[in-house]
Write a structure and sequence with these properties.
Layout (H helix, E strand, L loop, with lengths): L2 H6 L8 E4 L2 E4 H19 L10
Antiparallel strand pairs: 1-2
């Protein structure tokens, strides 16, 4: 099994959805949103590299 085949395995089936009242979202979209939020928080929290002093 190649890497591409392993990554695309099982994509032909129906998507799984989570429902909470009037809100319905697929699990794949929820995971994507979660990753984006984590990356945003890391970008805000992690400090920028500081320039070195030239003495």
């Amino acid at each position: 099994m190649t890497t591409t085949t392993a990554l695309t395995a099982g994509l032909d089936g129906p998507a799984r959805y989570l429902t909470w009242g009037p809100i319905q979202i697929s699990v794949a979209n929820l995971v994507t949103i979660g990753i984006i939020v984590v990356l945003f928080v890391l970008a805000v929290v992690l400090p920028f590299p500081k320039p070195r002093d030239r003495r």
